[in-house]
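Fold Annotation — chain and its backbone

Fields — amino acid sequence, structure tokens

___
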Amino acid sequence: MTSRRHRRPPAPLAAPARNQPAAADIDVGDGGIALGDLSGNLGYRIRRAQLWVFKDAGRRLAPFAVSPAQFSVLAIIDANPGINQLSIAAALDIERAGLGRLIDRLEHHGMVTRTASGAHSRYYALRLTAAGSKLLRRVKPVIAESEKALADKLGSHAYQSLLQNLSVFLHDPGD
């Protein structure tokens, strides 16, 4: 039985074009490879920006043993005490199973509590513990530093403009 790591790469989807441009004519990414059509693709650039932001935030949050995803969940619970997991999953566009594991970890570390919901018997109400609130107060300035680093990278005007332009996606997950 062949392991996944040692499999032969799949055959290309199509034969390479005969008249490909010279390497100097192709936009080259930071990795030194041609990006082809991706270099002008806004979706690709947004994804690269997201990766930069998560890497920066993750590095800054590491001393607190908190991931960007955990920070997001803590922030949502803080803003909506008693919220249920389904609502958080919808707000953050996270699969329920993955969110369940994340909540389990936060609960295990004493950051959140789950209690039976008075409004719906199938749901649990989530609240921050005192330790969860304290941690969130400590990491909010760290996230603010990450946002400042992004603003510095883009320039203040471009940062504000991008923030405003991307606000159309806050309540529209594209469904």
